[in-house]
Amino acid sequence: MRDLEILTETDKETLELPRTSVEENNITGKRKLYIESYGCQMNFSDSEIVTSILQEGGYATTANFEKADVILLNTCSIRDNAEQKVRNRLNNFGYLKKKRPDLIVGVLGCMAERLKTKFLEEEKIVDVVAGPDSYRDLPNLLSEAEDGQKAINVFLSKEETYADISPVRLNSNGVTAFVSIMRGCDNMCSFCVVPFTRGRERSRDPHSIIKECQDLLDKGYKEVTLLGQNVDSYKWTSTDGMKLVNFAQLLEMVALINPTLRVRFSTSHPKDISDEVLYTIKKYENICKYIHLPAQSGSSRILKMMNRTYDREWYINRIDAIRNILGQDCGVSQDMIIGFCTETEEDHQETLSLMEYVKYDYGYMFSYSERPGTPAAKKFIDDISPEIKQRRLAEVIDLQLKLSLERNNGEIGKIQKVLAEGFSKRSEDFLQGRNDQNKKVIFAKENYNGATFRKGDYVMVKITSCSSATLKGEAV
Ligand code: SAH
Ligand code: SF4
Ligand code: F3S
Protein backbone atom coordinates (compact mmCIF):
# COMPACT_ATOMS: atom_id res chain seq x y z
CA MET A 1 0.00 0.00 0.00
CA ARG A 2 2.90 2.31 0.68
CA ASP A 3 6.49 3.04 -0.07
CA LEU A 4 9.27 0.84 1.20
CA GLU A 5 11.01 3.50 3.24
CA ILE A 6 10.39 3.77 6.93
CA LEU A 7 7.74 6.40 7.27
CA THR A 8 6.44 8.28 10.22
CA GLU A 9 3.23 9.13 8.46
CA THR A 10 1.24 7.85 5.51
CA ASP A 11 0.59 11.10 3.71
CA LYS A 12 1.95 11.01 0.20
CA GLU A 13 3.28 13.69 -2.05
CA THR A 14 1.17 15.70 -4.41
CA LEU A 15 -0.41 13.67 -7.13
CA GLU A 16 0.07 15.10 -10.57
CA LEU A 17 -1.64 13.88 -13.67
CA PRO A 18 0.39 12.36 -16.49
CA ARG A 19 1.41 14.84 -19.16
CA THR A 20 -0.26 12.87 -21.96
CA SER A 21 -3.70 13.34 -20.47
CA VAL A 22 -3.05 17.08 -20.30
CA GLU A 23 -2.06 17.36 -23.94
CA GLU A 24 -4.99 15.28 -25.15
CA ASN A 25 -7.39 17.20 -23.04
CA ASN A 26 -6.19 20.68 -23.88
CA ILE A 27 -7.34 20.19 -27.47
CA THR A 28 -10.92 19.63 -26.41
CA GLY A 29 -11.24 23.04 -24.69
CA LYS A 30 -13.43 21.60 -21.95
CA ARG A 31 -13.55 22.86 -18.37
CA LYS A 32 -10.35 21.86 -16.65
CA LEU A 33 -9.96 19.84 -13.50
CA TYR A 34 -6.91 19.61 -11.24
CA ILE A 35 -6.95 16.97 -8.48
CA GLU A 36 -4.52 16.40 -5.63
CA SER A 37 -4.63 13.47 -3.18
CA TYR A 38 -3.55 13.05 0.44
CA GLY A 39 -3.59 10.10 2.81
CA CYS A 40 -3.78 6.40 2.10
CA GLN A 41 -3.89 4.46 -1.13
CA MET A 42 -7.70 4.26 -0.89
CA ASN A 43 -7.80 8.01 -1.41
CA PHE A 44 -5.44 7.86 -4.39
CA SER A 45 -7.62 5.11 -5.80
CA ASP A 46 -10.76 7.20 -5.19
CA SER A 47 -9.22 10.13 -7.08
CA GLU A 48 -9.03 7.83 -10.11
CA ILE A 49 -12.75 7.12 -9.72
CA VAL A 50 -13.52 10.84 -9.34
CA THR A 51 -11.52 11.61 -12.48
CA SER A 52 -13.47 8.97 -14.38
CA ILE A 53 -16.82 10.38 -13.20
CA LEU A 54 -15.82 13.95 -14.08
CA GLN A 55 -14.39 13.05 -17.47
CA GLU A 56 -17.79 11.48 -18.23
CA GLY A 57 -19.31 14.69 -16.90
CA GLY A 58 -17.42 16.72 -19.52
CA TYR A 59 -14.29 17.77 -17.62
CA ALA A 60 -10.73 17.51 -18.90
CA THR A 61 -7.74 17.06 -16.59
CA THR A 62 -4.75 19.34 -16.19
CA ALA A 63 -1.48 18.88 -14.31
CA ASN A 64 -1.19 22.64 -13.83
CA PHE A 65 -3.45 24.02 -11.11
CA GLU A 66 -3.02 27.57 -12.44
CA LYS A 67 -4.86 26.52 -15.59
CA ALA A 68 -7.65 24.74 -13.74
CA ASP A 69 -11.30 25.82 -13.54
CA VAL A 70 -11.84 23.36 -10.71
CA ILE A 71 -9.33 22.37 -8.03
CA LEU A 72 -10.16 19.30 -5.95
CA LEU A 73 -8.26 18.17 -2.86
CA ASN A 74 -8.90 14.59 -1.76
CA THR A 75 -8.21 14.86 1.94
CA CYS A 76 -7.13 12.72 4.92
CA SER A 77 -8.03 13.00 8.62
CA ILE A 78 -6.01 10.14 10.09
CA ARG A 79 -3.77 12.41 12.20
CA ASP A 80 -3.86 16.09 12.98
CA ASN A 81 -0.83 16.83 10.78
CA ALA A 82 -2.62 15.27 7.77
CA GLU A 83 -5.40 17.84 8.20
CA GLN A 84 -2.92 20.70 8.70
CA LYS A 85 -1.32 19.86 5.39
CA VAL A 86 -4.65 20.28 3.62
CA ARG A 87 -5.36 23.58 5.36
CA ASN A 88 -1.94 24.90 4.33
CA ARG A 89 -2.57 23.86 0.75
CA LEU A 90 -5.95 25.61 0.79
CA ASN A 91 -4.16 28.76 1.97
CA ASN A 92 -1.83 28.46 -1.01
CA PHE A 93 -4.77 28.32 -3.36
CA GLY A 94 -6.31 31.39 -1.69
CA TYR A 95 -4.25 33.84 -3.76
CA LEU A 96 -5.39 32.20 -7.00
CA LYS A 97 -9.01 32.51 -6.01
CA LYS A 98 -8.50 36.23 -5.30
CA LYS A 99 -7.24 36.70 -8.86
CA ARG A 100 -9.96 34.46 -10.31
CA PRO A 101 -13.12 34.48 -8.22
CA ASP A 102 -14.76 32.04 -10.66
CA LEU A 103 -12.25 29.32 -9.69
CA ILE A 104 -14.02 26.47 -7.89
CA VAL A 105 -12.29 24.76 -4.97
CA GLY A 106 -13.67 21.48 -3.69
CA VAL A 107 -12.64 19.20 -0.86
CA LEU A 108 -13.27 15.45 -1.04
CA GLY A 109 -12.48 12.47 1.14
CA CYS A 110 -12.15 11.92 4.85
CA MET A 111 -11.66 15.47 6.09
CA ALA A 112 -14.69 16.56 4.05
CA GLU A 113 -16.74 13.82 5.69
CA ARG A 114 -15.44 14.61 9.18
CA LEU A 115 -15.93 18.37 9.06
CA LYS A 116 -19.05 18.54 6.85
CA THR A 117 -20.53 22.07 6.81
CA LYS A 118 -17.84 23.24 9.25
CA PHE A 119 -15.43 23.07 6.33
CA LEU A 120 -17.44 25.76 4.53
CA GLU A 121 -17.47 27.92 7.64
CA GLU A 122 -13.80 27.48 8.54
CA GLU A 123 -12.24 27.68 5.08
CA LYS A 124 -13.94 30.45 3.11
CA ILE A 125 -12.14 29.42 -0.07
CA VAL A 126 -14.03 26.09 -0.20
CA ASP A 127 -17.06 25.92 -2.55
CA VAL A 128 -17.77 22.17 -2.59
CA VAL A 129 -17.59 19.52 0.15
CA ALA A 130 -18.03 15.90 -0.97
CA GLY A 131 -17.65 12.82 1.24
CA PRO A 132 -16.23 9.48 0.01
CA ASP A 133 -19.62 8.01 -0.97
CA SER A 134 -20.94 11.03 -2.88
CA TYR A 135 -18.63 11.15 -5.89
CA ARG A 136 -21.35 10.27 -8.40
CA ASP A 137 -22.99 13.52 -7.36
CA LEU A 138 -19.89 15.62 -8.13
CA PRO A 139 -21.03 16.86 -11.57
CA ASN A 140 -24.18 18.26 -9.88
CA LEU A 141 -22.28 19.68 -6.94
CA LEU A 142 -19.84 21.43 -9.27
CA SER A 143 -22.61 22.90 -11.39
CA GLU A 144 -24.33 24.23 -8.26
CA ALA A 145 -21.02 25.85 -7.35
CA GLU A 146 -20.75 27.33 -10.84
CA ASP A 147 -24.13 28.95 -10.19
CA GLY A 148 -22.55 30.64 -7.19
CA GLN A 149 -23.88 28.39 -4.43
CA LYS A 150 -21.91 26.42 -1.87
CA ALA A 151 -22.56 22.71 -2.43
CA ILE A 152 -22.24 19.78 -0.05
CA ASN A 153 -22.96 16.04 -0.03
CA VAL A 154 -21.61 13.99 2.88
CA PHE A 155 -24.15 11.19 2.78
CA LEU A 156 -22.55 7.84 3.68
CA SER A 157 -23.93 4.84 1.86
CA LYS A 158 -24.23 1.20 2.89
CA GLU A 159 -24.00 0.01 -0.71
CA GLU A 160 -21.81 2.30 -2.80
CA THR A 161 -18.69 0.54 -4.12
CA TYR A 162 -18.31 2.36 -7.49
CA ALA A 163 -18.12 -1.17 -8.91
CA ASP A 164 -19.13 -0.13 -12.44
CA ILE A 165 -16.75 2.83 -12.69
CA SER A 166 -13.61 2.31 -14.67
CA PRO A 167 -10.88 4.32 -12.88
CA VAL A 168 -8.72 6.71 -14.92
CA ARG A 169 -5.18 5.70 -13.88
CA LEU A 170 -3.35 8.78 -12.62
CA ASN A 171 0.41 9.12 -12.39
CA SER A 172 0.70 5.46 -13.34
CA ASN A 173 3.92 3.61 -14.13
CA GLY A 174 1.87 1.34 -16.42
CA VAL A 175 3.10 -1.72 -14.53
CA THR A 176 1.44 -1.74 -11.09
CA ALA A 177 -2.08 -0.67 -10.15
CA PHE A 178 -4.37 -0.57 -7.12
CA VAL A 179 -7.84 -2.11 -7.20
CA SER A 180 -10.32 -1.29 -4.49
CA ILE A 181 -12.20 -4.42 -3.31
CA MET A 182 -14.21 -2.95 -0.44
CA ARG A 183 -15.02 0.32 1.30
CA GLY A 184 -15.54 1.50 4.86
CA CYS A 185 -14.64 -0.24 8.11
CA ASP A 186 -16.79 -1.99 10.74
CA ASN A 187 -14.05 -2.15 13.35
CA MET A 188 -13.99 0.44 16.02
CA CYS A 189 -10.36 0.84 16.94
CA SER A 190 -10.69 3.49 19.62
CA PHE A 191 -8.03 5.82 18.14
CA CYS A 192 -9.30 5.73 14.58
CA VAL A 193 -11.33 8.22 12.59
CA VAL A 194 -11.86 5.97 9.55
CA PRO A 195 -15.17 4.36 10.61
CA PHE A 196 -16.59 7.90 10.93
CA THR A 197 -15.22 9.18 7.63
CA ARG A 198 -15.75 6.13 5.44
CA GLY A 199 -18.81 4.52 6.97
CA ARG A 200 -19.88 0.89 7.08
CA GLU A 201 -17.87 -1.87 5.52
CA ARG A 202 -19.14 -3.21 2.18
CA SER A 203 -17.57 -5.55 -0.33
CA ARG A 204 -17.47 -5.00 -4.06
CA ASP A 205 -18.90 -7.55 -6.50
CA PRO A 206 -16.05 -9.99 -7.30
CA HIS A 207 -17.00 -10.08 -10.99
CA SER A 208 -16.31 -6.35 -11.33
CA ILE A 209 -12.99 -6.82 -9.49
CA ILE A 210 -11.94 -9.62 -11.85
CA LYS A 211 -12.99 -7.54 -14.84
CA GLU A 212 -10.94 -4.56 -13.67
CA CYS A 213 -7.87 -6.77 -13.09
CA GLN A 214 -8.30 -8.44 -16.50
CA ASP A 215 -8.57 -4.99 -18.17
CA LEU A 216 -5.35 -3.94 -16.44
CA LEU A 217 -3.60 -7.09 -17.66
CA ASP A 218 -4.88 -6.44 -21.19
CA LYS A 219 -3.38 -2.93 -21.00
CA GLY A 220 0.03 -4.38 -20.07
CA TYR A 221 -0.07 -4.04 -16.27
CA LYS A 222 1.79 -6.79 -14.40
CA GLU A 223 0.74 -6.31 -10.80
CA VAL A 224 -2.46 -5.52 -8.91
CA THR A 225 -2.78 -4.63 -5.23
CA LEU A 226 -6.22 -5.38 -3.78
CA LEU A 227 -7.18 -2.60 -1.40
CA GLY A 228 -9.37 -2.42 1.68
CA GLN A 229 -9.12 -1.23 5.31
CA ASN A 230 -9.42 -4.85 6.40
CA VAL A 231 -9.18 -7.12 3.36
CA ASP A 232 -9.53 -10.31 5.42
CA SER A 233 -13.12 -9.47 6.21
CA TYR A 234 -14.01 -9.17 2.50
CA LYS A 235 -17.36 -10.93 2.12
CA TRP A 236 -19.63 -10.71 -0.86
CA THR A 237 -23.02 -12.39 -1.09
CA SER A 238 -25.01 -12.59 -4.33
CA THR A 239 -28.42 -10.88 -4.27
CA ASP A 240 -30.22 -14.25 -4.11
CA GLY A 241 -27.98 -15.19 -1.18
CA MET A 242 -26.85 -18.35 -3.00
CA LYS A 243 -23.22 -17.42 -3.56
CA LEU A 244 -20.69 -16.26 -1.01
CA VAL A 245 -17.12 -15.20 -1.73
CA ASN A 246 -14.61 -14.65 1.09
CA PHE A 247 -11.16 -13.06 0.82
CA ALA A 248 -9.26 -16.34 0.32
CA GLN A 249 -11.60 -17.20 -2.56
CA LEU A 250 -11.31 -13.73 -4.08
CA LEU A 251 -7.51 -13.93 -3.89
CA GLU A 252 -7.64 -17.26 -5.69
CA MET A 253 -9.94 -15.88 -8.39
CA VAL A 254 -7.56 -12.97 -9.03
CA ALA A 255 -4.49 -15.23 -8.97
CA LEU A 256 -6.11 -17.48 -11.58
CA ILE A 257 -6.60 -14.63 -14.09
CA ASN A 258 -3.08 -15.16 -15.35
CA PRO A 259 0.11 -16.52 -13.75
CA THR A 260 2.06 -13.50 -15.07
CA LEU A 261 -0.14 -11.07 -13.09
CA ARG A 262 1.30 -10.50 -9.63
CA VAL A 263 -1.21 -10.13 -6.81
CA ARG A 264 -0.72 -8.11 -3.63
CA PHE A 265 -3.20 -6.96 -0.99
CA SER A 266 -3.44 -4.48 1.86
CA THR A 267 -4.33 -4.14 4.72
CA SER A 268 -4.62 -7.38 6.69
CA HIS A 269 -6.10 -7.32 10.17
CA PRO A 270 -4.55 -9.61 12.83
CA LYS A 271 -7.97 -10.62 14.14
CA ASP A 272 -9.20 -11.77 10.72
CA ILE A 273 -6.21 -13.14 8.79
CA SER A 274 -7.05 -16.83 8.49
CA ASP A 275 -4.98 -19.93 7.76
CA GLU A 276 -7.17 -20.32 4.66
CA VAL A 277 -5.81 -17.02 3.35
CA LEU A 278 -2.23 -18.07 4.18
CA TYR A 279 -2.65 -21.42 2.37
CA THR A 280 -4.06 -19.60 -0.66
CA ILE A 281 -1.00 -17.31 -0.71
CA LYS A 282 1.21 -20.40 -0.51
CA LYS A 283 -0.67 -22.19 -3.31
CA TYR A 284 -0.12 -19.55 -6.00
CA GLU A 285 3.31 -18.45 -7.11
CA ASN A 286 1.91 -15.13 -8.35
CA ILE A 287 0.46 -14.12 -4.95
CA CYS A 288 3.29 -12.20 -3.30
CA LYS A 289 4.70 -13.55 -0.06
CA TYR A 290 4.33 -10.34 1.83
CA ILE A 291 1.86 -9.35 4.54
CA HIS A 292 1.34 -5.92 6.06
CA LEU A 293 0.01 -6.78 9.51
CA PRO A 294 -0.38 -3.66 11.67
CA ALA A 295 0.15 -4.46 15.35
CA GLN A 296 -0.33 -0.90 16.78
CA SER A 297 1.20 -2.00 20.12
CA GLY A 298 2.96 -4.96 21.73
CA SER A 299 1.12 -4.55 25.02
CA SER A 300 -2.12 -6.49 25.56
CA ARG A 301 -3.32 -3.83 27.98
CA ILE A 302 -2.92 -1.07 25.37
CA LEU A 303 -4.40 -3.26 22.62
CA LYS A 304 -7.49 -3.69 24.79
CA MET A 305 -7.82 0.07 25.26
CA MET A 306 -7.35 0.46 21.52
CA ASN A 307 -10.21 -2.03 21.00
CA ARG A 308 -8.12 -3.95 18.50
CA THR A 309 -9.93 -7.15 19.68
CA TYR A 310 -6.74 -9.24 19.78
CA ASP A 311 -3.95 -9.44 22.33
CA ARG A 312 -0.20 -9.92 22.10
CA GLU A 313 -0.53 -13.74 22.22
CA TRP A 314 -3.06 -13.78 19.39
CA TYR A 315 -0.85 -11.54 17.27
CA ILE A 316 2.17 -13.79 17.91
CA ASN A 317 0.06 -16.83 17.01
CA ARG A 318 -0.74 -15.22 13.63
CA ILE A 319 2.95 -14.43 13.05
CA ASP A 320 3.84 -18.04 13.89
CA ALA A 321 1.18 -19.23 11.43
CA ILE A 322 2.71 -16.99 8.72
CA ARG A 323 6.18 -18.39 9.42
CA ASN A 324 4.94 -22.01 9.56
CA ILE A 325 2.83 -21.85 6.42
CA LEU A 326 4.76 -19.37 4.27
CA GLY A 327 8.26 -19.75 5.70
CA GLN A 328 10.81 -17.38 7.19
CA ASP A 329 11.20 -15.56 3.88
CA CYS A 330 7.66 -14.15 3.84
CA GLY A 331 7.88 -10.35 4.18
CA VAL A 332 6.05 -8.89 7.18
CA SER A 333 5.60 -5.19 7.95
CA GLN A 334 3.91 -3.29 10.75
CA ASP A 335 2.10 -0.12 11.77
CA MET A 336 2.67 1.03 15.35
CA ILE A 337 1.10 3.83 17.34
CA ILE A 338 3.46 5.24 19.94
CA GLY A 339 2.35 7.03 23.10
CA PHE A 340 -1.29 5.97 23.17
CA CYS A 341 -3.19 7.05 26.30
CA THR A 342 -1.67 5.70 29.56
CA GLU A 343 1.23 3.96 27.75
CA THR A 344 3.90 3.14 30.36
CA GLU A 345 7.59 2.38 29.87
CA GLU A 346 6.67 -1.29 30.32
CA ASP A 347 4.07 -1.15 27.55
CA HIS A 348 6.63 0.57 25.34
CA GLN A 349 9.19 -2.19 26.08
CA GLU A 350 6.55 -4.75 25.05
CA THR A 351 6.22 -3.01 21.69
CA LEU A 352 10.00 -3.19 21.24
CA SER A 353 10.12 -6.85 22.27
CA LEU A 354 7.28 -7.75 19.90
CA MET A 355 9.26 -6.11 17.09
CA GLU A 356 12.33 -8.17 18.04
CA TYR A 357 10.21 -11.32 18.05
CA VAL A 358 8.66 -10.72 14.63
CA LYS A 359 11.76 -9.22 12.98
CA TYR A 360 9.68 -7.01 10.73
CA ASP A 361 11.03 -6.22 7.29
CA TYR A 362 9.84 -2.65 7.66
CA GLY A 363 7.26 -0.52 9.34
CA TYR A 364 5.25 2.67 9.63
CA MET A 365 5.38 4.29 13.02
CA PHE A 366 3.27 7.16 14.29
CA SER A 367 2.92 9.26 17.42
CA TYR A 368 -0.61 8.99 18.73
CA SER A 369 -2.72 11.89 17.54
CA GLU A 370 -6.09 12.30 19.26
CA ARG A 371 -8.94 12.53 16.75
CA PRO A 372 -12.08 14.41 17.81
CA GLY A 373 -15.17 12.25 18.24
CA THR A 374 -13.35 8.90 18.39
CA PRO A 375 -13.99 6.53 21.33
CA ALA A 376 -10.46 7.19 22.66
CA ALA A 377 -11.02 10.95 22.60
CA LYS A 378 -14.27 10.48 24.52
CA LYS A 379 -13.04 7.95 27.08
CA PHE A 380 -9.33 8.55 27.68
CA ILE A 381 -6.96 11.43 28.27
CA ASP A 382 -4.15 11.94 25.76
CA ASP A 383 -1.73 11.97 28.68
CA ILE A 384 1.66 11.09 27.20
CA SER A 385 3.72 14.23 26.73
CA PRO A 386 4.98 15.14 23.25
CA GLU A 387 8.56 14.73 24.54
CA ILE A 388 7.96 11.17 25.73
CA LYS A 389 6.10 10.29 22.52
CA GLN A 390 8.99 11.65 20.51
CA ARG A 391 11.63 9.75 22.47
CA ARG A 392 9.72 6.46 22.32
CA LEU A 393 9.00 6.96 18.62
CA ALA A 394 12.72 7.49 17.97
CA GLU A 395 13.51 4.23 19.83
CA VAL A 396 10.95 2.31 17.82
CA ILE A 397 12.23 3.76 14.54
CA ASP A 398 15.85 2.98 15.46
CA LEU A 399 14.95 -0.60 16.25
CA GLN A 400 13.02 -0.96 12.99
CA LEU A 401 15.99 0.37 11.01
CA LYS A 402 18.20 -2.23 12.69
CA LEU A 403 15.69 -5.05 12.00
CA SER A 404 15.21 -3.94 8.37
CA LEU A 405 18.96 -3.99 7.84
CA GLU A 406 19.21 -7.45 9.44
CA ARG A 407 16.43 -8.83 7.25
CA ASN A 408 17.89 -7.21 4.12
CA ASN A 409 21.37 -8.55 4.90
CA GLY A 410 19.77 -11.99 4.91
CA GLU A 411 18.77 -11.49 1.25
CA ILE A 412 22.36 -11.03 0.07
CA GLY A 413 23.45 -13.84 -2.25
CA LYS A 414 19.86 -14.88 -3.05
CA ILE A 415 18.42 -14.77 -6.55
CA GLN A 416 15.04 -13.06 -6.56
CA LYS A 417 12.33 -12.39 -9.10
CA VAL A 418 11.93 -8.64 -9.49
CA LEU A 419 9.23 -6.82 -11.42
CA ALA A 420 10.90 -3.78 -13.01
CA GLU A 421 8.72 -0.71 -12.44
CA GLY A 422 10.91 1.95 -14.06
CA PHE A 423 14.26 3.68 -13.95
CA SER A 424 16.01 4.19 -10.66
CA LYS A 425 15.71 7.75 -9.37
CA ARG A 426 19.46 8.33 -9.71
CA SER A 427 20.28 6.98 -13.16
CA GLU A 428 18.59 5.69 -16.30
CA ASP A 429 21.26 2.98 -16.50
CA PHE A 430 19.55 1.32 -13.56
CA LEU A 431 16.09 -0.15 -13.17
CA GLN A 432 14.09 -0.20 -9.99
CA GLY A 433 11.51 -2.79 -9.04
CA ARG A 434 10.18 -4.90 -6.22
CA ASN A 435 10.76 -8.46 -5.14
CA ASP A 436 8.07 -10.79 -3.83
CA GLN A 437 8.48 -9.36 -0.32
CA ASN A 438 7.74 -5.85 -1.65
CA LYS A 439 11.33 -4.68 -1.13
CA LYS A 440 12.78 -2.16 -3.51
CA VAL A 441 15.54 -3.68 -5.66
CA ILE A 442 17.91 -1.67 -7.88
CA PHE A 443 19.94 -3.28 -10.67
CA ALA A 444 21.74 -2.29 -13.89
CA LYS A 445 19.36 -2.53 -16.86
CA GLU A 446 22.05 -4.26 -18.91
CA ASN A 447 23.57 -7.49 -17.60
CA TYR A 448 26.98 -8.95 -18.35
CA ASN A 449 25.60 -10.95 -21.30
CA GLY A 450 24.45 -7.70 -22.89
CA ALA A 451 20.75 -8.41 -22.28
CA THR A 452 18.78 -5.20 -21.73
CA PHE A 453 15.75 -5.20 -19.46
CA ARG A 454 12.80 -2.82 -19.59
CA LYS A 455 10.01 -1.57 -17.39
CA GLY A 456 7.41 -4.32 -16.96
CA ASP A 457 9.91 -7.19 -17.28
CA TYR A 458 10.28 -9.86 -14.64
CA VAL A 459 14.03 -10.07 -14.01
CA MET A 460 15.96 -12.61 -11.91
CA VAL A 461 18.32 -10.52 -9.79
CA LYS A 462 21.14 -11.72 -7.56
CA ILE A 463 21.23 -9.51 -4.46
CA THR A 464 24.73 -8.19 -3.81
CA SER A 465 24.34 -5.40 -1.22
CA CYS A 466 21.71 -3.52 0.77
CA SER A 467 20.78 -0.65 3.03
CA SER A 468 17.90 -0.76 5.52
CA ALA A 469 15.56 0.50 2.78
CA THR A 470 16.88 -0.92 -0.50
CA LEU A 471 18.45 -4.00 -2.04
CA LYS A 472 20.99 -3.78 -4.86
CA GLY A 473 21.84 -6.56 -7.24
CA GLU A 474 22.76 -7.81 -10.71
CA ALA A 475 20.46 -9.30 -13.31
CA VAL A 476 21.45 -12.94 -13.91
N1 SAH B 1 -7.09 -0.30 8.40
C1 SAH B 1 -5.74 -0.31 8.74
C2 SAH B 1 -5.19 1.04 9.11
C3 SAH B 1 -5.60 2.27 8.46
S1 SAH B 1 -4.95 3.77 9.09
C4 SAH B 1 -5.56 -1.19 9.94
O1 SAH B 1 -6.47 -1.48 10.67
O2 SAH B 1 -4.45 -1.59 10.18
C5 SAH B 1 -3.20 3.55 8.92
C6 SAH B 1 -2.44 3.61 10.21
O3 SAH B 1 -2.51 4.90 10.77
C7 SAH B 1 -2.96 2.71 11.31
O4 SAH B 1 -2.54 1.38 11.16
C8 SAH B 1 -2.39 3.35 12.54
O5 SAH B 1 -1.11 2.84 12.83
C9 SAH B 1 -2.28 4.81 12.15
N2 SAH B 1 -3.26 5.63 12.87
C10 SAH B 1 -4.60 5.55 12.81
N3 SAH B 1 -5.17 6.44 13.65
C11 SAH B 1 -4.16 7.09 14.26
C12 SAH B 1 -4.09 8.11 15.27
N4 SAH B 1 -5.19 8.62 15.80
N5 SAH B 1 -2.87 8.56 15.66
C13 SAH B 1 -1.74 8.02 15.12
N6 SAH B 1 -1.75 7.06 14.19
C14 SAH B 1 -2.94 6.58 13.76
FE1 SF4 C 1 -9.19 2.19 11.65
FE2 SF4 C 1 -9.18 -0.09 12.97
FE3 SF4 C 1 -10.71 0.18 10.79
FE4 SF4 C 1 -8.06 0.07 10.55
S1 SF4 C 1 -9.40 -1.57 11.31
S2 SF4 C 1 -9.43 1.51 9.55
S3 SF4 C 1 -7.36 1.13 12.37
S4 SF4 C 1 -10.97 1.26 12.73
FE1 F3S D 1 -6.71 9.10 5.69
FE2 F3S D 1 -9.15 8.45 5.13
FE3 F3S D 1 -7.18 6.94 4.30
S1 F3S D 1 -8.44 9.26 7.03
S2 F3S D 1 -5.64 7.22 5.87
S3 F3S D 1 -7.56 9.00 3.68
S4 F3S D 1 -9.20 6.26 4.91
Task: Give the SSE map.
Elements: H1 19-28, E1 31-37, H2 41-56, E2 59-61, E3 70-75, H3 80-99, E4 104-108, H4 109-115, H5 117-122, E5 128-130, H6 138-146, E6 151-153, E7 176-180, E8 182-183, H7 194-198, E9 202-203, H8 206-218, E10 223-227, E11 235-237, E12 244-246, H9 247-255, E13 262-266, H10 275-283, E14 290-292, H11 300-305, H12 312-326, E15 331-338, H13 345-358, E16 362-367, H14 375-379, H15 386-409, E17 415-423, E18 430-434, E19 440-444, E20 458-466, E21 470-475
Parallel strand pairs: 1-2, 1-3, 3-4, 4-5, 5-6, 7-10, 10-13, 14-15, 15-16, 19-21
Antiparallel strand pairs: 8-9, 11-12, 17-18, 17-20, 18-19, 20-21
Helix pairs in contact: 9-10, 10-12, 13-15
FE3-S4 cluster is lined by residues 10, 39-40, 42-43, 76-78, 109-110, 193-194, 197-198.
Structure, described:
A hairpin with a 6-residue loop joins strand 17 and strand 18 (430-434). The model is unreliable at 1-27 (pLDDT under 50). This protein is 35% helix and 22% strand. The protein is built from 15 helices and 21 strands. Helix 9 (247-255) runs parallel beside helix 10 (275-283) and helix 13 packs parallel to helix 15 (386-409). The protein folds into 3 domains: 6-153, Methylthiotransferase, N-terminal domain (Rossmann fold), CATH 3.40.50; 176-409, tm_1862 like domain (pyruvate-formate lyase- activating enzyme, Alpha-Beta Horseshoe), CATH 3.80.30; 415-475, OB fold (Dihydrolipoamide Acetyltransferase, E2P). With 476 residues, it is α/β, with parallel strands linked by helices. S-adenosyl-L-homocysteine is lined by residues 10, 78-79, 191-192, 229-230, 267, 269, 294, 296, 335, 337, 366, 368-369, 371.
